[in-house]
Amino acid sequence: MLSGDILVTEREFARYDIHLNVWERPKPHGLSGFFRLYNEEQFMIPSIESHLPWLDEVVLIVQKSDDATVELAYQIQQKYPTKIRIAHYPAGVVGIGTPEHFSLPENSIRTMMHLTNWSIYQCKYSWVAKIEGDVIALSTFAKIREAIDNEPDKICYYGRLGLNIAGEDYTYVFGTHPRNAGWDEGVFNNHPLWHCIRYDKWESVNMNEHRDKLINMGFSFLHVKRCKAEQERLREPEQWVAFDRENTCRVLTVYNRDHGHPGPDNFCPDVLFERTTLSEY
What pTM did the predictor assign? Predict the structure, then answer.
């Protein structure tokens, strides 16, 4: 639990400070989804639109990008003006695992930790969903929305499992690492109880403090990072298998032997195949 305000080390960016007395205020019941967007032009629109049915607001945290991310953010905001807000983040953020990631204080404006905490801080509803710009919602996200509506005051982190899709045409599963762990993407109370910290070479919400409050809700998204054009150049064919029921079940079975499946018993549910092409999302 945080014990004081988070003040950025770079005082010229003082307006990006986070004040606990503001963050702790009671908020209206609802679900905000925030997207940290940097060079996400390829999949950000289907990512946002696939989550919209279950979100009361979308907050796009836009960073200066080398592609059309900023322009697309304004286009989709104009399409859904009552539901989407844009907030600009002023600084380039260092990559995870880089020397700067380890050396900078966590409250530096240039860290993923502060970017994430400030993103949560921008959300106005009592629950928040942390969503990447290359994550496509499955219809099972509705179960998480139902859970928070049924128990709006529960202190909880609802984890989400994701299948790692690969290939330019959405035709493969990443065979050696077919799913996400289930708690990097999640839905949790909008309160300083949950905040982002540095974990080894990564950044994540402070789950190790609150493992007893984690409920894994099973598969609710497809992660299409490896469908991006630059990923195609890195392809190792033996690591990618055809995205069909037989192959997906096979690679998940193998992976789960060493990485216990944290969701419901059905580790290869029908929902993974509810669409046949990425464009249907």
Answer: 0.94
